[in-house]
Inverse folding.
């Protein structure tokens, strides 16, 4: 969810992708080969991304957050400090003056102190002994972990399955590796209301849709649970169907399980959905712990979301040595090592997180309670503003986003001109067209003082253009209470706009 300030505009992309054959045929050979010539062909990575290298939702809404005074519920990072024990661990690592002072390079595959801590923890998660030197790899954040997984697994012609909607980073990383994304849509099932009211609901995986997408070309399935952007927690039955599909695809198929939100399951699945899988992360199922899946899974995670320290940028991969060894081999050519100081700080932080904290049995229990309260605070504001949201007494949830549904009254509140060509033509939107979700979020940022993220960038371009994303926006609650309360007040202005329009129509009809 980072903001890229250097994203090229469409014209720049077009120039980059211009074929050298379009150069003036009268140019001399010296001119054609001149280093100063602008008519260079794009590199392979740029060609694989194609037109998807233009402005993005993050650059566009990052700009809006700077230009307007908004309560920012957009980017997925906390706006408070990490816990005291994590900051203290960072300080102590920084001033460590022993012979092992962490101010120089460390082991490329992972700082020894950290991989030992991670192996200890994941041995409990996976119910097996993890080898710290051969089954753990430390990376610069989870994004690099995903990148390395795909680069070591995928070759041109391979297919990688994404559950749609999906975190937008996945799609382009697959393309950078030369693979082809194959989209398996999750199905939104609204709660039934007899009065016809538009409600929240839950997203489910229909096994037959996955089965239809699986083939001998399937190299990997990316599973993200808890899920960004919907907050979905994949249940045990769905995970078993995924495991069956992995086996059906053939021995080449593996799962990349992105579990960065594993400690933030704020609404746990029923206990019967967790039996036999373990509870080292309450409410969460580690896919690799399912029968037969350890050898077919690379588990990806990071410290940023758990410790409210997204700037630390330490991630990791856990898996069998035959899947981790290629990552070890590639790492020196991508990044010699993640920050030694930060790795050492995290190694010192992890044991502290298991200790009692702020009246809770552990920091993890405190974290879940904190996010549960913030979720409810934001959810109340969203409902009062007219959005439909999940009922977390009925639907398990994790992460720190609410995928809010746009109701008809909110559609009516949006000024009509916002759906006109002056606003809808936007190169950052999928297909260059800003649809309802984008238009509403842009209007709320520019005129109502609250910034949320449209859902369309989390869908394939085809699905977004078909309108699959029109009804949803993503709203982050990893913010201070003051930010959430400010946003709730701003959101009430959306409903006020509708009431103002309705009042004007009544007056016009009276005349």
């Amino acid at each position: 969810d980072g903001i890229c300030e250097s994203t090229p505009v469409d014209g720049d992309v077009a120039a980059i992708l211009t074929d050298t054959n379009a150069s003036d045929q009268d140019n001399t050979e010296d001119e054609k080969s001149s280093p100063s010539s602008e008519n260079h062909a794009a590199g392979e990575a740029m060609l694989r991304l194609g037109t998807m290298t233009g402005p993005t939702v993050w650059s566009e809404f990052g700009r809006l957050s700077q230009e307007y005074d908004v309560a920012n519920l957009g980017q997925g990072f906390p706006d408070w400090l990490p816990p005291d024990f994590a900051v203290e661990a960072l300080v102590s690592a920084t001033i460590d003056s022993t012979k092992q002072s962490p101010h120089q390079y460390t082991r490329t595959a992972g700082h020894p102190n950290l991989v030992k801590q991670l192996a200890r923890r994941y041995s409990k998660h996976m119910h097996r002994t993890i080898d710290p030197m051969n089954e753990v790899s430390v990376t610069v954040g989870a994004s690099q972990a995903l990148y390395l997984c795909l680069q070591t697994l995928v070759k041109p012609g391979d297919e990688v399955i994404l559950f749609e909607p999906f975190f937008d980073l996945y799609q382009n990383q697959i393309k950078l590796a030369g693979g082809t994304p194959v989209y398996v849509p999750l199905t939104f099932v609204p709660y039934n209301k007899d009065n016809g009211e538009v409600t929240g609901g839950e997203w489910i995986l229909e096994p037959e849709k996955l089965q239809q997408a699986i083939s001998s070309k399937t190299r990997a399935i990316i599973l993200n649970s808890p899920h960004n952007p919907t907050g979905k927690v994949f249940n045990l039955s769905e995970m078993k169907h995924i495991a069956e599909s992995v086996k059906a695809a053939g021995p080449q198929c593996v799962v990349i399980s992105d579990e960065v939100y594993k400690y933030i399951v704020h609404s746990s699945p029923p206990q019967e959905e967790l039996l036999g899988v373990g509870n080292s992360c309450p409410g969460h199922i580690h896919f690799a712990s399912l029968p037969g899946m350890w050898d077919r899974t690379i588990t990806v995670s990071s410290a940023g979301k758990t410790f409210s320290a997204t700037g630390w940028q330490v991630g990791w991969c856990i898996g069998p040595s035959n899947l981790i060894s290629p990552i070890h081999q590639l790492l020196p050519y991508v990044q010699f090592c993640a920050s030694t100081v930060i790795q050492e700080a995290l190694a010192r932080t992890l044991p502290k997180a298991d200790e009692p904290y702020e009246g809770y049995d552990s920091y993890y229990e405190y974290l879940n309670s904190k996010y549960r309260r913030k979720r409810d605070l934001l959810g109340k504001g969203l409902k009062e503003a007219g959005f439909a949201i999940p009922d977390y007494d009925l639907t398990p949830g994790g992460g720190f986003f609410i995928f809010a549904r746009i109701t008809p009254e909110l559609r009516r509140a949006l000024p009509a001109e916002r759906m006109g060509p002056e606003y809808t033509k936007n190169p950052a939107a999928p297909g260059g067209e800003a649809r309802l979700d984008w238009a509403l979020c842009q209007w709320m940022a520019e005129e109502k003082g609250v910034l949320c993220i449209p859902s369309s960038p989390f869908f394939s371009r085809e699905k977004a253009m078909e309108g699959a994303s029109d009804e949803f926006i993503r709203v982050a609650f990893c913010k201070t209470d003051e930010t959430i309360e400010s946003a709730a007040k701003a959101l009430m202005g959306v409903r006020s706009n509708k009431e103002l329009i309705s009042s004007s129509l009544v007056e016009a009809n009276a005349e």
Remarks:
- The two ends are 50 Å apart (CA to CA).
- Residues 2-37, 499-511 have pLDDT under 50 and may be disordered.
